[in-house]
Amino acid sequence: MPMPENVQIGSGQLAVDRSFSIVVTGVHDASLDREVHRFKTQLSRQTGIPFWPKAAATPTLTIHADHGRDAVQKLGEDESYDLAISNSGAKLTAPTSLGILRGLQTFLQLVQMTPSGFAVPAVAIKDQPRFPWRGLLIDVSRHFIPLDVLKRNIDGMATVKMNVLHWHLSDDQGFRVESKAFPKLTGMGSDGTYYTQAEIRDFIAYAHDRGIRVVPEFDMPGHSDSWFLGYPELSSGAGPYTLEGGAAIDPIMDPTREETYKFLEKFIAEMARLFPDAYFHIGGDEVDGKQWDANPKIQAFKRAHGMKNNQDLQAFFNQRLQKIVARNHKIMVGWDEILHPDLPKSIVVQSWRGQASLAAAARQGYSGLLSHGYYLDLMWPAGRHYAVDPMSDAAADLNPDEKSRILGGEACMWAEWVSPENIDSHIWPRNAAIAERLWSPQSVTDVASMYVRLQAVSLNLEWLGLTHRSARTHMLQRMAGDADISALRVLADVVEPVKDYSRWDEAKQGPIDFHAPLNRMIDTVYPESDTARHFRDLVQADAQSGFKDKAAEEEIRSWLTLWRDNDARLHPLLEQSFLLQEVKPLSESLAEAGAAGLLALDYLGKGEPCPESLRTSQLALLERAKARQADLLLMVAPLVEQLIDASAGQVRPN
Amino acid sequence: MPMPENVQIGSGQLAVDRSFSIVVTGVHDASLDREVHRFKTQLSRQTGIPFWPKAAATPTLTIHADHGRDAVQKLGEDESYDLAISNSGAKLTAPTSLGILRGLQTFLQLVQMTPSGFAVPAVAIKDQPRFPWRGLLIDVSRHFIPLDVLKRNIDGMATVKMNVLHWHLSDDQGFRVESKAFPKLTGMGSDGTYYTQAEIRDFIAYAHDRGIRVVPEFDMPGHSDSWFLGYPELSSGAGPYTLEGGAAIDPIMDPTREETYKFLEKFIAEMARLFPDAYFHIGGDEVDGKQWDANPKIQAFKRAHGMKNNQDLQAFFNQRLQKIVARNHKIMVGWDEILHPDLPKSIVVQSWRGQASLAAAARQGYSGLLSHGYYLDLMWPAGRHYAVDPMSDAAADLNPDEKSRILGGEACMWAEWVSPENIDSHIWPRNAAIAERLWSPQSVTDVASMYVRLQAVSLNLEWLGLTHRSARTHMLQRMAGDADISALRVLADVVEPVKDYSRWDEAKQGPIDFHAPLNRMIDTVYPESDTARHFRDLVQADAQSGFKDKAAEEEIRSWLTLWRDNDARLHPLLEQSFLLQEVKPLSESLAEAGAAGLLALDYLGKGEPCPESLRTSQLALLERAKARQADLLLMVAPLVEQLIDASAGQVRPN
């Protein structure tokens, strides 16, 4: 995963055992050497076999690249490779060593446990990406994410052949990059957690080694509260500014003062040197303009320049900004809102709004990236992200020229509700589904196959040190104190966080407290419940058989029994923990859902319809189970509802 | 854990919440600042609460040390502390900041989940160690252990208040320290894995920050094969030497040549500068002397010097060595074999042979350390290590002066059968029981209490990044491929590796292959089965009630049922994996044991004795279950045997 462009299955397999050896022919540089070393380390972890350096008469794997890589990875650099595996050996060839990186990841995913040993199947693969820009945005402003966590996510991205880390480095809640020219950006604009320039250089080299570009984003003129603590003169209002946020008015930069551009000239020059990538992201999203409206000097400026609205003023700002970015030999990237006819066609528009916006940009001659549909913080299931295609909907009607302007897309991990502890589980494994969408041919759309492969890749990612599965154990244990967590795990396995932006309603609840502990059940559970998905498949299979699928029914019954009995096991623990008291009703609901499901199964088994009055009372009971509780959703409740309806001879539309 | 010397329980508790704050009065240095920072990080991990710097009117925790620490930690440096916690605040005081380190670990262990929030109970603790030397030996020669793994083990040691890492840095299988004077020691005497001097300095500083001394061991004149690859002139035989070992004769240094001492003079001077600790371990164990016997020049030397045997020759070598060590301002430490009347009383003898040997040394005026009984590689249960006391047996009869020469002890993690992947689970949590033996008063001996606290500390250790529990999941998954591992876990939970040195019989099986993969079931399971211990307690409770303890019986029945049915679930997986084929009979045995136990329970339930013929056939069936299979022991088999006997009205002696 992602599925290669072309796969021909052969017969037989190649053993991966202690005699495994590698020979590199063709191009041979330090970056490739490091990659081969990492490959062997990873293969060792997967198999438990230590591979000692040895001379081999016939190598197991021959690697050949025609050309090396550029010092700075380019958009569209050749990533293709051929991998041919027979039972006597494997050969990986590629035009560039970047393709070798991609091919080695494919090889690692092919390693299987067999009755006779570890092996890779005989296969011939020709592969190249569908889109040249396949990114993941990580927001490190709302919650600071340390470099070791980012590095393991880079490893994960390399596994699924993503090639851009979009690093959202500044926002209202913190400025995260050391500036030597403007030290107060971090000195006052952060809580002391940020990256030094030396750390950033090291991190960029780390990402480059893994075939990943690092595109920095400094969000302006909005989302820039953190800049103003140290440099209030940049802002359009009077301040004072704090990192806690919560001001009714979102602070914005003042685009009418020349000093603003002098500052940005110096700042962008410094950052352009620090970040070698050809692209430079200036944000540009969600400028509400209230500070502009409230400032008479800015109003006067708008009138003097014949600007009709704040969009014109932002376009004016962006034009100035674009010239600065261009003078530093960078291409400007920004969110939908930067799109304006006054801006040159060289810019790239990243769409959080959707394919229509992307298509409109492409028609006007702008390049674009899709992020709408790829927001990992919305807690969607992988399958829903997987169904979103950059070339679908409005983009489907573009002509080939226009289509070529759609460079790819980016998954987005906004960090309002993630910490270093649980960010992995919010990115993985779902991000792998988006990675496949952006790499594999458009025709690869089988969701069931995707989920099977997602499970396998998820296990592989744990070998890399990602904690998307293991961290939950610690977090559950924290809530449980010293107690046994098996019953708590049963509950955690069938719930998901509420979706979209419904966790927190700022209008009703006030500003988000970014220092609040993220140690509740909602922070602990996975965005997508594998158990609920599996149970859904079972119920579906049973329903399709007219509730005569005995194997499915038996498994459904054992799940329902587990759930019915779980609250009794779990209850004493919930009483003991202040963090778990909020999930008491949820645990009761699970027990009720289990009991209701079993009752339905009994009627289905007897072939006798459940009386309507009983159906009505059971469905009423399920209302609580279906409702949001402790900001969580009990994902199996609607499926039990289906069983109840079926037991009464009703079919509920899916 | 370890249990403090004196604990007075108060009433009430002190909340640990977002307002938690710390004030340091008295001595204040960089090392203490770092410790306080680590404390807060660890507290954050345990609670999930991010503690932001803030000014507090009344601090939650006040820390006061009278004196700072020495740049090099001394044996016997004051580690005592007082910790007073009330519901309004906590005060930690100590004569030195080393005591503060110890007290902060106690505080972390007191943090509990309660219905009203995280809290520490009101308590007054006065604490100091029983022994000044509480160590853990880690062998990094047989399998190289990288520094990140060692560092997390240092963190674990600090948690249980151990204060010496004994670093076994050279042995036949590899020399692990960079020597600038003799680069071929690692250049030819290792597989390329070793520590540079810069890394070692960094590691020693890391350990010092956590109150842990680092004592290096360079084993000589035996166990020194790895020296001879680069410097064959040091050896008593002709060679050639390889790291693979397997020579019938163990290579030994030549103690008769002056060049040997010139080499060691230069080498020890270099190492004495690198390792600041006052103690320097020269090994000295297991010198079989065959190379000496085979060398006519060495035989002539012995005769010329009137030496009766090889012990005399080794004592001669040790005397020379001791003078070199002393000239470098170090105190020599060695294993039992170095004890010889010709050596000065200043040396320290580490006993792998037992308290008798230790007592003999103490009577002769030598200081000593106990390691016999603390070998973690023997796969003993924690309770067995816990029962070993340095002052018991022969040492119990020593007079106070002699007793004062017993400085403490060391757990030993010999690395023939551990890799970086599973070394944590072979050290932890059992090492915590040994740490308690060496810190807490001799009267603290309640094994049941120890196990309860061991479970709690084991959870805490996972927060530090130790993988003694989490790594098993990955290793089981590796053996299972992509399959579900729940049934495999049931089996893994009730087996233990064979004990002592019975895994490998070199006489029969030839030399150990140190490059072999450690990815089998025996490498994956814990040295001690918690499930089996729990089941033993249940059977004991039921037996003591005359098999009328309904609660115990119900739980026994559910375990036996799980085991009886597990092989059917597990079998398809075992067929698919070459690594699991060897455990097929074991899985069958578990099913048989489950069925036999259930049959016994039925007879016990009916109050009707199981017929003798049935008992005999059931016991015969259990013979395979009790036997070693795949180098594993099915720990529940003897308990099922007890049930069978009881069902036939027989009582089997424990």
Classification by helices and strands of chain A? alpha/beta
Largest interface, with Cβ-Cβ < 8 Å? A-B, 46 and 45 residues
- Poorly predicted regions of chain A are none
Helical percent range of chain A?
A: 40-55%
Q: Report how far apart the termini of chain A are.
A: 29 Å
Residue-averaged pLDDT of chain A, rounded? Answer: 95
Describe the structure.
The structure is a homodimer of 654-residue chains. Chain A has 654 residues and is α/β, with parallel strands linked by helices. In chain A, the strands form 3 sheets. In chain A, strands 8, 9, 10, 11, 12, 13, 14, 15 and 16 form a 9-stranded mixed β-sheet that branches. The longest helix of chain A has 27 residues, at 550-576. Chain A is globular, with a radius of gyration of 27 Å. Chain A starts with 5 loop residues before the first strand and ends in a 7-residue tail after the last helix. Chains A and B meet through helix 1, strand 6, helix 16 and helix 17 of A and helix 1, strand 6, helix 16 and helix 17 of B.
Question: Keywords for this structure?
Answer:
homodimer; about 650 residues; alpha/beta; nine-stranded mixed β-sheet; 25 helices; 18 strands; about 45% helix
